[in-house]
């Protein structure tokens, strides 16, 4: 199964006031944590979607990237931009893993578990489960590519997951609920988990 990865790093960190992707945790920028895990997972191609702060982020990026020129319209635009570019470069892609750039506990193991769960369950969607929700990273098989490419607004792919409950499997990613949206989130991360 040809599995590509899209790292969604196109937001402008509006509530934080600076690029959260460059905040460090255990000596690494959050963007480095996710890109290194994505590359080490062995899935290919890996593409990062940039938007706000694209120039600063591109300087440290270790993957190919594309800029979502309409990043202000929301997460969906970054998904569409990334998947369109991946399919243009690799039309034989069987599935894609969408991940974000602000989950400091992301790892190769999480990405591989998504893949392995899909192989066993044969579900079209495999999402991460944490606290009382499911979310990123999430794997979509090719049967959902058209729906992903039709997304709009800031809802991301959650609507596709919610509309297909019988075709969704989940993996446990307990630390997935920790993401960075505000300075308080970041301070909490550095004080509690270092």
Automatic annotation (TrEMBL):
- Coiled coil stretches, renumbered: none
Q: Which InterPro entries match?
A: MobA-like_NTP_Trfase, Nucleotide-diphossugar_trans
Which Gene Ontology molecular-function terms are recorded?
nucleotidyltransferase activity
Every MobA-like NTP transferase domain range: 6-164
Any stretches that span the bilayer, and where are they? none
Pfam families, sorted: NTP_transf_3
Q: What is this protein called?
A: MobA-like NTP transferase domain-containing protein
Q: Which organism is it from?
A: Pedobacter kyungheensis
The taxonomy runs: Bacteria, Pseudomonadati, Bacteroidota, Sphingobacteriia, Sphingobacteriales
């Amino acid at each position: 199964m040809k599995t590509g990865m899209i790292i969604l790093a196109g937001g402008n960190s509006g509530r934080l006031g600076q690029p959260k992707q460059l905040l460090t945790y255990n000596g690494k920028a959050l963007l480095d944590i996710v890109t290194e895990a994505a590359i080490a997972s062995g899935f290919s191609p890996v593409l990062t979607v940039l938007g706000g702060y694209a120039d600063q982020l591109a300087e440290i990026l270790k993957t190919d990237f594309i800029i979502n020129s309409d990043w202000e319209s929301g997460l969906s635009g970054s998904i569409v931009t990334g998947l369109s570019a991946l399919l243009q470069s690799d039309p034989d892609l069987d599935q894609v893993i969408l991940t974000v750039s602000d989950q400091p506990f992301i790892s190769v193991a999480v990405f591989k578990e998504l893949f392995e769960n899909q192989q066993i369950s044969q579900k079209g969607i495999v999402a991460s489960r944490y606290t009382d929700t499911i979310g990123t990273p999430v794997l979509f098989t090719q049967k959902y590519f058209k729906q992903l490419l039709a997304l709009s607004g800031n809802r991301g792919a959650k609507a596709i997951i919610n509309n297909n409950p019988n075709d969704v499997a989940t993996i446990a990613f307990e630390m997935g609920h920790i993401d960075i949206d505000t300075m308080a989130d970041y301070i909490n991360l550095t004080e509690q988990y270092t």
